[in-house]
Amino acid sequence: MFKGSDLLIAALENEGVERIFGIPGEENLDIVESIRKSSIQLILTRHEQAAAFMAATYGRLTGKPGVCITTLGPGALNLSTGAAYALLGAMPMIMLTGQKGILSSRQARFQVVDIVAAMKPLTKLSRQIVSPLMIPTLVREAFRVAGEERPGPVHLEVPEDIAAEECAKVALVPPHPVELPLASGRLRISPNSCCEHEYPTSRRRWVRVLCRAAPSSIWARRPYPNAIMCTRRSSAPT
């Protein structure tokens, strides 16, 4: 039996996700079970805020969106500080939150908070998944928005009845990664050129532009230690 949660995890695997940080709960048990059967590692945390900070830092260090998961209501709201941290620091992150069933609700409005609306000021995109057939498209859109300039957090709400709903194996959307400068690696600057290094093509372009720029035009959105070294060795003020 293939469920919406299985399709969600398959879409995350399609994006290259290797680990998810978070805390299991009643509303995301189907997703947790799908993670157990997948190649993705679930890293348990003591608090939802810690999961958000871990996912944000993972995104900052790797350049790939970090993923965290929580339940509904108070658990989801605990992500707000981590979301603000990722938004201000330009760190790509995907937040998955659970929710009571939207097709039917046995517990009325118990702990039902409009997390989608609450996350909009703190994220680049906040959406609710209302059908399993939407999952491949929304996951691809979430990773695209989180990774493109300026990187930041994206929120997806997954109601428990949507995660548990049986569905067909829908074709996944192939990822098209965005080239961005990363924080890892070592920069080797020679006297003749400040672009002699082992970085990817995107970073080589970035360093060339930085080193040829007028001193007054150099402005970094994110903390790039190598940018400081490059500008110092090229006699540009930092």
Which helices and strands appear, and what pairs or packs with what?
Elements lengths: L3 H11 L4 E4 L6 H8 L4 E4 L3 H15 L3 E5 L2 H5 L2 H10 L3 E7 L15 H5 L5 E4 L6 H13 L5 E7 H5 L36 H12 L12 H9 L5
Parallel strand pairs: 1-2, 1-3, 3-4, 4-6, 5-6
Helix pairs in contact: 1-2, 1-7, 3-5
Indicate the mean pLDDT: 82
Q: Specify the biggest β-sheet.
A: 6 strands, parallel
CATH T-level fold name of the largest domain: Rossmann fold
Report the CATH superfamily of the largest domain. Answer: Thiamin diphosphate (ThDP)-binding fold, Pyr/PP domains
Beta fraction: 5-15%
Indicate the radius of gyration in whole angstroms: 20 Å
At CATH level 2, the architecture of the largest domain is 3-Layer(aba) Sandwich
Helix amount: 25-40%
Can you write the helix and strand succession as a string? HEHEHEHHEHEHEHHH
- The secondary-structure class comes to alpha/beta
User: Briefly, what CATH class of the largest domain?
Assistant: Alpha Beta
Query: CA-to-CA gap between the ends?
Result: 58 Å
Secondary structure tally: strands: 6
Low-confidence stretches: 186-199, 224-238
| Total of domains | 2
User: Which overall shape is indicated by the principal axes computed on the Cα atoms?
Assistant: globular
Strand order of the largest sheet: 2-1-3-4-6-5
Q: What oligomeric state do these chains adopt?
A: single chain
Provide a count of the helices.
10
